[in-house]
């Protein structure tokens, strides 16, 4: 540090441009939403993945603890659905990522 002992508090997106006497502040989610006008909107595929995960966890526990044959079958079905949903979600994310206007600050999904 230099002879200046006062710390400047700045919020910057690129940490490599910080000087020695600056402090990094990480904003909370609400501040980021306001700064970038970003809204968290999970889509149907995301919700279905979470739902199938809950089904899998519940039925897998039944199968592991009680050796319930039908719970094992339901767990396998949930895993197969998760497999297909994950592949679909990956394609959704890549299709948005590859759009030329994705990096535009005014881009909305």
In angstroms, what is the radius of gyration?
A: 23 Å
The count of domains is 2
Specify the oligomeric state. single chain
Query: Low-confidence runs (pLDDT<50, min 5 residues)?
Result: 1-12
- Treating each run of at least 4 consecutive H or I residues as one helix, how many helices? 3
Strand content: 5-15%
Shape: elongated
Q: Which strand order spans the largest sheet, edge to edge or round the barrel? A: 1-2
The helicity comes to 55-70%
Major sheet: size, sense and barrel closure?
Answer: 2 strands, parallel
Average pLDDT figure: 76
In a few lines, what is going on in this structure?
This protein has 109 residues and is mainly alpha-helical.
What's the SSE blueprint?
Elements lengths: L7 E3 L11 E3 L4 H8 L7 H23 L2 H29 L12
Parallel strand pairs: 1-2
């Amino acid at each position: 540090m230099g002879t200046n002992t006062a710390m400047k508090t700045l919020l910057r997106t690129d940490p490599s441009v910080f000087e020695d006497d600056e402090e990094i502040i990480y904003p909370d989610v609400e501040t980021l939403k306001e700064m970038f006008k970003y809204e968290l909107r999970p889509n149907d595929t995301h919700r279905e993945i979470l739902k199938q995960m809950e089904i899998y966890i519940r039925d897998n526990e039944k199968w592991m603890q009680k050796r319930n044959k039908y719970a094992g079958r339901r767990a396998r079905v949930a895993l197969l659905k998760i497999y297909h949903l994950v592949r679909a979600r990956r394609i959704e994310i890549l299709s948005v990522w590859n759009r030329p206007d994705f990096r535009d600050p005014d881009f909305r999904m």
